[in-house]
Specification:
Elements (H helix, E strand, L loop, with lengths): L8 H8 L1 H8 L2 H7 L5 H19 L22 H12 L11 H16 L1 H16 L1 H13 L19 H18 L2 H28 L5
Helix pairs in contact: 1-10, 2-10, 4-5, 4-6, 4-10, 6-7, 6-10, 7-10
The protein binds protoporphyrin IX containing FE.
The site of protoporphyrin IX containing FE (HEM) has 20 residues, from helix 1, helix 2, helix 3, helix 7 and helix 8.
Length: 222
């Protein structure tokens, strides 16, 4: 008799969102950024939009720390809000908060995050995974390009968001994170697992929508 091992939940999430990842990665805004074709104003705006996202992701995270399934994921070493604020101070100056407005897609994403903190913590995990594992992965590529394109000091002001000072070994951290995802998957029934998978795809789409809004605001011809 062949015993079929269940697919680890971390693999399920990665595989199920592969097409959405590809779409976000190849969106025009990201494409222009990766090719070093955007002005620093567009990068500053991206950082500003991310600030709204991380305010929503982290503002009430402490309330989830005791949650049986997702409590183990709440880790201050990941928190990005303070790093973003340091970057925004560098990029926009002392009055960085003045005139900083959430684009419609950003407001929609923040609203979804706030709703999940309130009503469905397992759904929040989908966004925790999408954002933080992304920041620890592709985010490092974006950091290198930002340093090169706009002359930020390596791992310095302007790119603090992409620097995880409290994580010495990102590869090991990601391995542990995936093991925690696998354990979380086992704690969820099949229906709930499927809902989290769908929410992960939605997380990528919500992020992609921010890039679309940014592309409208910072268009490049050809
Ligand atoms: C410029 C765009 C991007 C590039 C170049 C990029 C690149 C990468 C690479 C190379 C990995 C694999 C890293 C590894 O296996 O350790 C990765 C993983 C990941 N990326 Fe991206 N990425 C980009 C955009 C995004 C965006 C916009 C998101 C979501 C907001 C995202 C979310 C993720 C996630 C969640 C993973 C972890 C997948 C897993 O192993 O489970 N990425 N990315």
């Amino acid at each position: 008799m062949t015993v079929v091992e269940p697919v680890p939940f971390s693999t399920v999430l990665r595989t199920a969102s592969a097409a959405e990842h590809e779409a976000a990665e190849s969106s025009p805004f990201m494409g222009h950024l990766l090719k070093g074709r955007l002005g620093v104003d567009a990068y500053a705006e991206l950082s500003g939009q991310l600030w709204f996202v991380y305010q929503a992701l982290e503002g009430r995270a402490a309330e989830l720390a005791e949650h049986p399934v997702i409590g183990r994921f709440i880790d201050p070493a990941l928190f990005r809000t303070a790093a973003l604020e340091a970057d925004l101070l560098h990029l926009r100056g002392e009055g960085w908060r003045d005139g900083l407005v959430a684009l419609p897609a950003t407001a929609a994403y923040a609203a979804r995050l706030e709703e999940l903190v309130e009503t469905w913590p397992a759904g929040y995990l989908a966004h925790h995974y999408t954002r933080y594992l992304g920041d620890l992965s592709g985010g490092q590529i974006i950091r290198g390009i930002a340093e090169k394109t706009w002359g930020f000091e390596k791992k310095g002001a302007g790119v603090h968001f992409y620097v995880f000072d409290q994580i010495d070994n990102p590869a090991a951290f990601k391995r542990d994170y995936r093991a925690k995802l696998d354990a979380a998957g086992l704690a969820l029934d099949e229906v709930e697992q499927r809902r989290v998978v769908e929410e992960t795809k939605r997380a990528f789409q919500l992020n992609g929508a921010i890039f679309t809004d940014l592309d409208l605001r910072y268009p490049l011809s050809a």
